[in-house]
Write a structure and sequence with these properties.
Structural class: mainly alpha
Number of helices: 3
Distance between the termini: 17 Å
Number of strands: 0
Number of domains: 1
Strand content: under 5%
Largest sheet: none
Oligomer: single chain
């Protein structure tokens, strides 16, 4: 699983971002925090999800397929 860490292509970035989004969403749901902190974390989550959309659009525009790109 070290390929995701070393890679810099769209798929490894996508996987890393998905992991970050999942972890942050779980933290917002489960960890007790004040309203300001919660707002900040939710804004961070929205920004990460926006990055996911950008990378997905980039992948679609290049018509890349999983495991088919030679980056």
């Amino acid at each position: 699983m070290t390929a995701g860490i070393a890679g810099s292509g769209p798929y490894s970035r996508l996987r890393d971002l998905r992991f970050q989004v999942r972890a942050l969403a779980q933290e917002i749901r489960n960890k007790p925090m004040g309203p300001r902190t919660k707002q900040r974390k939710e804004a961070e989550l929205r920004a990460l999800r926006q990055q996911l959309k950008v990378i997905n659009a980039e992948i679609r525009s290049k018509k890349l397929r999983p495991r088919d790109c030679s980056e």
